[in-house]
Amino acid sequence: MIGYAVSVPIGQFVERSRAMAHTPTPQQRKAIETIDRNLAVTAGAGSGKTRVLVDRYLHLLKTGVNVNEILAITFTRKAALEMKERIRAGIAADPQLSSRLLHEFNQAQISTIHAFCQRLVADHPCQAQIDPRFRMAEEWESRGLLLQIVEEQVALARANQDPELTALGESYRQTSSFVADLVEIYERIISKGDPSFKVPDQSAELRPQIAALRQELLVRLPAWLDSLVAAELSDSKQQVTTDIRRVFNEYLANLKEPLRSEREIVSELAGLFGGNWAKDLKAEVQELKELCSSLSQLLFDLEANEILLKLGDLLAAIEEEYQRRKKALGLLDYNDLERLAEQLLSHGEIDQAYRYRHVMVDEAQDINLVQKRIIASLADHPEAKLFVVGDPKQSIYRFRGAQVEVFLELQNEIKASGGLELTLGDNFRSRPELIEFSNKFFSQVFADGLMQFTPANPKRERKGQPLVAVLQTAKGENSADERAAEAEQIAKYIRHLTAEQGYRYKDITLLFSSMTYAGIYERELHKHRIPFVNLSGRGFYQRPEIQDILHFVKWLQDSSDQISQICVLRSPFFAVSDHGLYWYQAGKFDQIVPEDQEKIAAAHKLYPFLQQQLVTLPAPQFIDTLLEATDFCGRTLSLPMGEQRLANIKKLQETSWQLWAKGYVSFTEQLHYIDQLIEQQGREGEARLDSESADVVTIMTIHGSKGLEFPVVILPDLCRPAVTPERGRLHYHPEWGLTLRDTTVHQQIKAVLKQEAVAEAKRLLYVAATRAEEQLVLCGVGTASDYKLGQPLENLRSWWEWILSGLEQIEPELFATISEIETGENYREETAAAVEAISTSIPKITVPDHYTLASFSATSLMIYALCPRRYYYRYLLRVPELVSAGQGNTVSGTLDPLQRGNIVHRVCEHLHTGADAQELLDWAIAMEGIKVSSREREELDQIIQRYLTGDFFQGIQGLKVEHEVEFAVPLDQFLITGTIDQVIHTEQGLKIMDLKTNQITPEQVAETAASYEMQLRIYAWALHIMTRKPILEAGLYFLFPDVIYRAESGCLDTEATEKWLLEACRQIQRGEKEQADAFPVADDCRYCPYDCRHLDQTRINFGEITAGMGKLEIK
Description:
This protein is α/β, with parallel strands linked by helices. 52% of the residues lie in helices and 12% in strands.
């Protein structure tokens, strides 16, 4: 049970921060006004760092420093914009500053390090020896290009039969894992700013050591074996001795004529010296075992040395080709910018032009070595003063090359040069109870680390009660069940926060260290009808239907990719049962039921055809071929949310066309970039909080929350491993260089790598916990008795274990342990009934095997009726619509018509009275996965209110209304699908109403409605077929002008509609073979989103290109 409550005056949060920001503490004032020397500032969480930066900048202006003499470097573009706006407001409000500064401030140098480097490089293209028209590559684009080049170089090494690299590649289960390791190692090496991949040859050192140990073994082992002749040995040890003698004789023969690896034989010998030996033999046996192990290790090091030498050459070849390819494309990546900027600043005449009097660096704990050298160059003249601010406890970008040691070195260098070091230890963000908990907990966490933990000083009023909730979920049978139970606890607790503690949804943020299992928590929020938005970027590319297509392509690329093959067979492509897959993997085909045998046979029959199409067709056309050959769209449509799934498939096709337009023609090329888009979506990035008005729970990564603050912070999934286990065979460390797993060097750096990973995990947890202003909720599974605590943190598996261990040293009054939550309402069942209720009165239709049906949606057939050529471009070629085709005026802002329609439909779907309109609107916006501005929300609210007060809504009160009625009706060999917004039941029959959000005037209704006539006819036909009830009326409700359009009676002629449908579907099917000529252009092109003349010429050119491609060899 929850034993405390919190009353939160939400409106005070912003006012509090504003009020405190304008009263500098003595330490803040010192940081602001000390401008005669270099300054290194350590700024803890919530210490007012941004205000100090702004006020220091304004203070410099007041002392006569010009705008163009100040350079400010921030970590993110968002931070740079915020800093600019605050300084601009400060200039305008301060009478001491001249109004002309506002004009001069437009030229202020406040940007990210990469924006500064880009400006520097762009100003000096000749000295940088680059194309002056260069383009910055997107991160996914540059990484995709790198991945493609690495794959090509690995394939080339394999084709050249390089023994060392081939052996290394074969040590991986999949080539893709080898490639991924190479990419990661390349990026780590290049991030240190030294593009030299040469590996030092260690053979001259290793060979004498090997020779010495080999000679020692040749002398000592025979002597030891001879000494055993008179020894009394047990039967088992007699056998072991015989085995040792046999293996040693093999070793001697192998030295003369190598038939087997020397290392393998010596390793086998080392293994034979194990077990218990007699006391008088034990010491000698142990020495011989260590001798064999040492020799085996050196032999492995020598083998690894040869591999590493070739690996260095391979990485150098990758770098050379990567630079050549980027130059040909006119691209630069972020590493290029840093490298070129550093080189340019070494030119005397350029360096003179960039001599700032004051250089300010924010978030300095996240800079890398190259960036540090750039900053040092900028501040390397007598008049320059360097001001760096950061917090080593918040350095969490190690995966991007940031090293906390760089900041610590910078601090020491500033002190050594006569500069000043300051600490901003006051915390204006969090309640004292939160700070006291954090001080006690993190003083334990950082006790044995590189940096010293300095407790923060609370500056806010006390609340007088525990503000840290430890939400414990009982242990379950497996981790999946435990996460689901924890997610339900969190959903209930959020309900408790809003219902009993006065919080709003917008005050609550869930921070994840990884988004891998975030979907589990999202589902529970949805079930409890809690609105949320996920700002992590997860989404489209993780949809099952998109993953199915990508898995199919990966299987076609690599027939040995068993994971992708199983995913394809299990997916709607073939729908093989789990039992069938089990026996298939076991190789026992006779155990597979006939139905699954047929599906597997169909997959293998299609495989060579699709594999050939993959390498000969441009990617967009290949997708069409894949979908058609497997009827994937038809099968997907029969699944829940079928229309949405089809829309996602269409989006993938549009993305493919867009990549094709950029020059990435084949799917093999495009897959590199799609993979990177997927990976980048899951990576940590800057959070975009464009609107503060939406009352929704926020889900984001801890990395994305950096620099932000929230009233309530919930940390879910704390039982996941705190440190990701070391993977791969290749490893790199700036101090030891490149190495292979299990070498002597790797054994030396293994502990260091783990120590660095644990240290960053500590810092990441600190960042997460210190985002909270009012309350912190820690969530995990099990109690202290379920774990083996009482050992160093690095030996504990998860953050949850760290927390349970730390709680033992913290006063109980600083936290409340919660094991069970009672919300007082059964939200889950209530929501399930409201959200998941579906029609039970409309009978289901048994659809024949999807292999025999060609599927057409009502929308696609409506497009065909309007203009066959438009259908051809949209549904056959999958060309993206270039402009909005909606009639009437568009709505300004970021909310597009589709999103607006989806939101309105969601609200209307659940709206029975006006009482819950606002809550439903919040929920609908959140379900769309966006945040809207206050103006956009007001527009949406106006639409909803117009709907509530309109004649239509008032007229259906008391009637049975079904919403979002999906249908899939077979017609001959075709399947007609669609979704009807509303079906109204009366005693006489059924009425159809489709809601439209077109921004039109009442005078435009008739003209606009005419374009939807065929859609209404299809709806009436399908509904009549499904229910066998008379269709009384079909209409459109245009929400903006609040006008109902009722179609003429001819639209209800289901027999005529069926004839048209059958003929149209047959014409489309015939036309697919004839292509564009079978799809004539309609007379009315006013609202068409395609420029047919331009596209027709593009199509002709495209045909000429593909005709010349010929057949490509399958690799």
